[in-house]
Amino acid sequence: MLIVLCSREDWAAKAFAHRFASYDVHTLTCQDLSREGWKLALRGHVGTKPEVELTAAIDRRRVGANQIEGVITRIGLVDERELKHIVAGDRTYVAAEMHAFLFAFLEALSCRIINPPSPACLYGPNVRPVQWRRYARELGIPVEKDHAGVTPGTQGCSSEVDITVVGGRIFGSASSRVLHWSRQLARISGASYLLVRYVVHGDDSWFVGADPYPRLESEEIGRVLIEYFSEKSQTC
Amino acid sequence: MLTALWGLESDEPLAAVQEALQDLAGKVLLLDQRRVSEIDFRIEDERNLIGYVRCGDRRVSLEEVSGWYIRPYDTRRVRSVERAGPGSPEWKHALELEHALLGWLEITEAFVVNRPSAMLANGCKPYQLQMVRRAGFAVPETLVTTDPAEVIAFWERHGNVIYKSISGVRSRVTRLGASDRGRLSDVVHCPTQFQAYVPGQDYRAHVVGEDVFGCEVRSEADDYRYATDGVPQIWATRLPREVEERAVAMTKEMGLQVAGIDLRQTPDGHWYCFEVNPSPGFTFYEQFTGQGLASAIARLLICAGVKERDGRPIFLGGEYGTHTERGSCLARQG
């Protein structure tokens, strides 16, 4: 089973699940956390290895962690606006609790997750723009912000290029050097999926920013994501 | 050499650290969240980490700041910001400032107590418990569930069970009682945490760099922070050396410089850890123990701040210059 954790109104996620229904893809919303059957049990007596037992409630059935082969996360946090079924006065608290639960649950899964969650961002590394630029500098990638006023971006004949990294695959039209940088950025941030944006002018490219939010709109990327989960079906 | 403080001026731990820094003749810049509209923060050269922060008439270069002590409150709840409302210039400025400062605190070479990213684990207790367990402390058997039948089975298995929040929202630790049985079905709405009750003696350990300040807490309440039958009795104590070492190692492993650790020793001698607070309200304990936690944090900020920036240790004179046996420039354990 492949789970897409998404907003109630995430039509791209629903279309993706529908398109790849034969791969047992299911969407999961925050509302589904208000269903009987979720469980995270932590045991670990002194001197023993801690054990975590997980059960999910997907499409009204209980699913053990070993049945979950992959997760694509399309929400960064649990937004109280997703919790219309909860009494208004309790939504803030419930949203915080559900967020904490989802993070702990995803973190405890051993299957592939796009992207491995962080406490502040369920869809991947909680890297601020300033930190992305620092990563880029550490990797020797020219950063657009460092060249403000002298980059071609101000001269009207440059273009922006998006490169998408999915596992070991890479998409986008750019020089091999730019593709290499993108892979390195994905690796250094721990993201299996990463969209990296550059400003390109002639042979020169400058890093603009990166975003680990997984896009499902593209049929090609969708197919590669399915392959990514299928190629090494690490059940939990 | 200057230490910047970010939070509310009226916040007791922040005020205590400010006072302690001033007692040590340390230069201090207070970024009071209530004066957010007067604060301006700019990174002028991100590559070389050059910029400034201005608060009112005072402007400080970021290179001058060797240490940061932060206890920020939710910006949106700061009175002036809340009053101005979403979308107002004050609201926008406050959020932009918060965003910029949080980013800066991740990349600055100054010494930060504590880096925002390192504090996040405390907002997810089951995750933090797994880190605690890996650090070698015992943790209570824990169940987070939306299944009432699981709760009943857990309750029957352990007899004595408590429940509390798992997020950063503070909640009171409460013992599950007969009157709760009728409302267990409510757990279906939201995953709820239950833990086997662990009997024993409460301790609090404050880790400040390499040093541990232990205190013993006596209270009849399940959660002594909310004791209704009189104030808890708290006094300074020395924790067993192996517990201290484990606490320091765990704090480091979590990427923290300062932490407040809730411990309990069971009658059979096992040490349980319930939570690691990355922004401890240490003044509550200090009022009983007089351990000098604010001074220790101030010394850490000054010593480590200079060491981290310049790569050299600094030792303050007088009573603060004594080495501990672990070689810290921090002087004494209270």
Distance between the termini of chain A: 11 Å
The level of helicity of chain B is 25-40%
Number of helices of chain A: 5
Following the backbone from N to C, one meets helices and strands of chain B in this order, namely EHEEEEEHHEHHEHEEEEEEHEEHH
3D structure, described in words:
The complex is a heterodimer of chains A (236) and B (334). Chain A has helices at 11-19, 91-108, 129-138, 176-189, 219-231, and strands spanning 2-5, 25-28, 39-43, 51-58, 61-64, 70-73, 112-114, 159-166, 169-171, 193-201, 204-211. Chain A has 236 residues and is an alpha/beta fold. Chain A is globular, with a radius of gyration of 20 Å. Chain B is an alpha+beta fold and 334 residues long. Chain B has helices at 12-23, 79-84, 89-107, 116-119, 125-134, 148-158, 241-253, 283-289, 293-310; strands spanning 2-7, 27-32, 39-45, 50-55, 58-61, 65-71, 111-113, 142-145, 161-164, 174-175, 192-196, 201-208, 211-218, 233-237, 258-265, 271-277. Chain B has a five-stranded antiparallel beta sheet with strand order 14-13-12-15-16, with helices on both faces. Chain B has a four-stranded parallel beta sheet with strand order 2-1-6-7. In chain B, helix 1 (12-23) packs across helix 9 (293-310). Mean pLDDT of chain B is 89; it is low at 313-334. The A-B interface holds A 33-46, 50, 52, 57, 85-86, 93-94, 96-101, 103-104, 107-108, 118-120, 126, 128-131, 133-134, 137, 143, 145-146 and B 43, 46-47, 99, 102-104, 106-107, 117, 120-121, 123-127, 129-130, 133-134, 138-139, 141-148, 150, 165-169, 188-192, 270. Strand 3 of chain A pairs antiparallel with strand 8 (142-145) of chain B.
Write the topology of this structure.
The complex is a heterodimer of chains A (236) and B (334).
Chain A: E1 2-5, H1 11-19, E2 25-28, E3 39-43, E4 51-58, E5 61-64, E6 70-73, H2 91-108, E7 112-114, H3 129-138, E8 159-166, E9 169-171, H4 176-189, E10 193-201, E11 204-211, H5 219-231
Parallel strand pairs in A: 1-2, 1-6, 6-7
Antiparallel strand pairs in A: 3-4, 4-5, 8-9, 8-10, 10-11
Chain B: E1 2-7, H1 12-23, E2 27-32, E3 39-45, E4 50-55, E5 58-61, E6 65-71, H2 79-84, H3 89-107, E7 111-113, H4 116-119, H5 125-134, E8 142-145, H6 148-158, E9 161-164, E10 174-175, E11 192-196, E12 201-208, E13 211-218, E14 233-237, H7 241-253, E15 258-265, E16 271-277, H8 283-289, H9 293-310
Parallel strand pairs in B: 1-2, 1-6, 6-7
Antiparallel strand pairs in B: 3-4, 4-5, 8-11, 9-10, 9-11, 12-13, 12-15, 13-14, 15-16
